[in-house]
């Protein structure tokens, strides 16, 4: 068929223009890859990869990393070097990684999780926390992934980097837990609170999945209040410095209401600091946003810079903020 052949020729022509297709690889690179892929198991420790590389004359970490990143770009392996836990593992079976992550999904059910086995393993309470509170225990992760410590650490780090999991530090470090972003309930009734509001609007109306959930976890980790928060996909209520805070999320915006005047500036400072942390460590500085602060005198919102110039209360007032005032002002000046 002439038309089909024309399409095939066009695809072949476009394919030949791709950078990795035009790259000439040393034969040693391909032999190195073959030996890696022949290794038993879905992943290899980086130290073993180094040993394989040395047999082909690659003796430096830079050389090995260069090859791994190239093969990762081709989709043959998965290699992520953002953190130490990720650098330690080279995935030679990408389908294994997908399967491992799919064990924790928005539609987790009895057949996916294997609840009978979980209960028999003495993890019934852990399962209840997952299904009812979206909290995954470390013990349950180890059971589901059924792997050695380094494998579990790697998978946890992958999910954290992709914002699928966030560390749950409420109540101390005992009994390690993680908030599973996609398992937060859809319809949660938080109820309104009276207070001081500010909004964070993300440019292009885009709020990546997981940013809201990570912000919740990091905000809660700053709280000294052990009372149970109310968490949902689009709204959450919790205590910060023993005062109520409401967070509401739409497609491209988050609205924050702080009940107590005395912590308003501190909470704003905390939220912006957390967003900067997420943007730097996870989003590769791809997030950008605008902050608007409420003027309670006329129920309007003004831009952060204008609010600073006006010394808009309670965000820039001189009272009730304690020692945090100067650090907050310095932070905002640097931010602007």
UniProtKB/TrEMBL annotation:
InterPro entries listed in its UniProt record: COR-A (IPR032171), WH-like_DNA-bd_sf (IPR036388)
Q: Could you tell me which residue ranges the COR domain spans? A: 26-184
User: Which Pfam families does UniProt cross-reference here?
Assistant: COR-A (PF16095)
Q: Which UniProt keywords apply?
A: Repeat
Tell me which Gene3D superfamilies the record gives: Winged helix-like DNA-binding domain superfamily/Winged helix DNA-binding domain (1.10.10.10)
Name it.
COR domain-containing protein
């Amino acid at each position: 068929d002439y038309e089909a052949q024309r399409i095939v020729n066009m695809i072949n022509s476009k394919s030949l223009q791709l950078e990795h297709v035009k790259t000439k690889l040393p034969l040693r690179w391909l032999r190195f890859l073959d030996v890696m892929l022949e290794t038993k198991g879905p992943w290899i420790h980086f130290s073993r990869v180094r040993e394989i590389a040395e047999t082909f004359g690659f003796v430096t970490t830079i050389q090995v990393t260069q090859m791994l990143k190239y093969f990762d770009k081709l989709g043959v392996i998965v290699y992520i070097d953002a953190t130490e836990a990720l650098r330690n593992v080279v995935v030679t079976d990408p389908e294994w990684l997908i399967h491992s992550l799919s064990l924790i999904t928005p539609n987790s059910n009895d057949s996916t999780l294997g609840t009978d086995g979980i209960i028999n393993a003495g993890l019934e309470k852990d399962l209840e926390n997952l299904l009812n509170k979206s909290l995954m225990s470390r013990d349950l992760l180890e059971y589901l992934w059924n792997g050695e410590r380094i494998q579990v650490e790697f998978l946890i780090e992958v999910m954290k980097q992709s914002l699928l999991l966030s560390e749950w530090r409420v109540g101390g470090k005992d009994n390690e837990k993680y908030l599973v972003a996609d398992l937060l309930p859809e319809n949660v009734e938080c109820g309104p609170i009276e207070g001081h509001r500010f909004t964070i609007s993300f440019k292009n109306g885009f709020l990546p999945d997981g940013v809201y959930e990570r912000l919740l976890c990091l905000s809660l980790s700053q709280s000294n209040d052990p009372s149970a928060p109310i968490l949902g996909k689009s709204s959450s209520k919790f205590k910060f410095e023993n005062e109520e805070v409401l967070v509401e999320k739409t497609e491209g915006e988050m609205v924050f209401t702080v009940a107590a005047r005395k912590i308003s500036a501190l909470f704003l400072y905390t939220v912006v600091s957390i967003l900067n942390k997420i943007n730097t460590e996870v989003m590769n500085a791809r997030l950008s946003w605008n902050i608007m602060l409420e003027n309670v005198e006329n129920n309007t919102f003004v831009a952060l810079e204008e609010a600073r110039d006006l010394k808009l209360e309670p965000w820039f007032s001189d009272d009730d903020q304690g020692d945090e005032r100067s650090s907050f002002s310095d932070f905002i000046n640097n931010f602007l």
